[in-house]
Design goal:
- The protein is α+β, with helices and mostly antiparallel strands.
- The protein is built from 6 helices and 12 strands.
- Strands 2, 3, 4, 5, 6, 9 and 10 form a 7-stranded antiparallel beta sheet that branches. Strands 1-12-11-7-8 form a 5-stranded antiparallel beta sheet.
- Strand 7 (about 110-115) and strand 8 (about 120-125) form a beta hairpin.
- The longest helix has 19 residues, at about 60-80.
- The termini are close together.
Length: about 230
């Protein structure tokens, strides 16, 4: 397994994203978060998930929910200590891999893409008004990137968390790879581009490096922070 990542401030003065990875008892845990209102929120989200996992490592739908719920409670509790912090929140996407099995979960609009044999096989669902517009048929999936509701989240850690999306447990083999990223990446890199670049890359590091370069070419001035983790089996 290869795990490689990037996390950059983009056009912002501070990087509000956080990436974390650890391994214990044969289980790999990867987390990516995008802080809203403060970089402290994403740091708290990822650090809590990683710490909770390391304290009680397990591979199950119930446990991955517990890790994320702990992060939600941590951020909400911290926000209550100061009126100026009441608005802080964070997205998160978490991937667990044990042997030849994987499970993942997300809150907000940080995404997990599962690729199989170079093609997208599955994408996590966003908690956003734009995603609801897509579900309701008002817009196409690709329009989520530019829709006026794309940054209006319906669920986030720390404030009004309304559900956690959890995948089924899926089998893994050498043809499987994952991309876990914040909206600062997927807003600029389309699904077709992800697949095209993957097909032209000799390994996971080149794939991530090429996506990063394309993102930076396409990014507007003062563009958002962006983070991405590639996991290749």
């Amino acid at each position: 397994m290869i795990v490689t990542w990037v996390s950059k401030a983009g056009g912002r003065p501070v990087n509000g994203d956080t990436v974390g990875k650890t391994r214990k008892n044969g289980i790999v845990c990867v987390a990516v978060a995008d802080g809203l209102g403060s970089e402290i929120a994403s740091e708290m989200a990822v650090n809590t998930v990683i710490n909770e996992f390391e304290n009680n490592p397990a591979f199950s739908e119930e446990r991955i929910k517990e890790y994320i719920n702990s992060a939600n409670e941590k951020i909400a509790g911290y926000a209550m200590t100061d009126p100026e912090l009441l608005h802080i929140s964070s997205t998160i996407a978490v991937l667990l891999i044990k042997g030849k099995k994987a499970i993942w979960a997300n809150v907000g609009d940080s995404r997990l893409y599962r690729f199989y044999d170079g093609m997208i096989a599955e994408v996590s669902e966003d908690h956003s008004m734009a995603f609801l517009d897509f579900v309701n048929g008002s817009i196409e999936y690709g329009d989520i990137r530019t829709d006026s509701n794309r940054n209006k989240l319906t669920s986030a850690l720390g404030v009004s968390m309304d559900g956690i999306n959890v995948s089924n447990i899926i089998p893994l083999d050498a043809q499987t790879s994952f991309l876990i990223c914040t909206d600062g990446l997927w807003e600029y890199i389309t699904e077709d581009e992800m697949e095209d670049i993957l097909g032209k890359s000799c390994d996971a590091r080149q794939w991530l490096r090429s996506m990063t370069e394309l993102r930076e070419e396409k990014a507007r001035e003062k563009s958002d922070n962006f983070s991405a983790v590639v996991v290749a089996m």
